[in-house]
Design brief:
The chain has three helices and no strands. It has one domain. The chain is mostly helical and about 70 residues long. Helix content is about 80%, strand content about 0%. The protein starts with a helix and ends in a 5-residue tail after the last helix.
């Protein structure tokens, strides 16, 4: 697969990942954190704010990999 195509697909995948992840994380927050204390909100959003990086790292690693011939 050409490098430009791999980077284009990876970019689209990261955009879709971030949008879906934000939607799911906020939906869960609205459904479960209504009466939680401030530190519960802080921990939840700290965790979910960092957790999306793991699948994004896999996509970026795939994008930056050596070109397959």
């Amino acid at each position: 697969m050409p490098v430009r195509l791999r980077k284009f697909i990876g970019t689209i995948l990261i955009i879709v990942l971030v949008l879906l992840y934000a939607l799911v994380a906020n939906t869960i927050a609205v459904a479960t954190l209504g009466n939680a204390p401030w530190w519960g909100h802080l921990l939840y959003f700290l965790l979910t704010g960092l957790l999306w990086v793991l699948p994004a790292m896999v996509i970026i690693k795939w994008m930056a990999g050596p070109p397959q011939r």
